[in-house]
Amino acid sequence: MANEIKVLIYMTGIIAAGYGLMKYTVPDEETMRKRLDPALRREYDERKAESREKGQQMMNLMREISESDKPLWGAQQEKKDK
User: Fold this and answer.
1) What is the CA radius of gyration of the chain?
2) Angstrom distance (rounded) from CA 64 to CA 55
3) How wide is the angle at C-alpha 57 spanned by C-alphas 52 and 62, nearest 5°?
4) What distance in Å separates the CA atoms of residue 39 and residue 53, rounded to the nearest whole number?
5) In this prediction, what percent of the chain has a pLDDT beyond 70?
6) What does the buried/exposed string (b/e) look like for 13-26 if buried means 16 or more CB atoms within 10 Å of the residue's CB?
7) What is the pLDDT of residues 11-41, one digit of tens each?
8) Helices (DSSP H) in 1-82: which residue ranges?
9) Is 70 helix (H, G, I), strand (E, B) or coil?
10) What whole-number distance in Å separates Cα of residue 73 and Cα of residue 78?
11) Statement: the pTM of the whole predicted model exceeds 0.90
């Protein structure tokens, strides 16, 4: 029983130390963005806006398809054919 408790304590300590080290050393997204060169920052913002737009288009497509009574794969095929 004592060995299991020691293992749990050591395991918890190792995991906590790893998580703390990760939080301390890895910068968050905003800090990383501030460190970028202005040209790279502009490219990053453009790609992020593109990605956001694609995600919004996908959500709109999913909403549109969910309102119909056709299965998802059939409606997607119709969209491709158009």
Assistant:
1) 24
2) 14
3) 125
4) 21
5) 88
6) eeeeeeeeeeeeee
7) 999 999 999 999 999 998 889 888 889 999 9
8) 2-25, 29-35, 38-67, 72-81
9) coil
10) 9
11) no
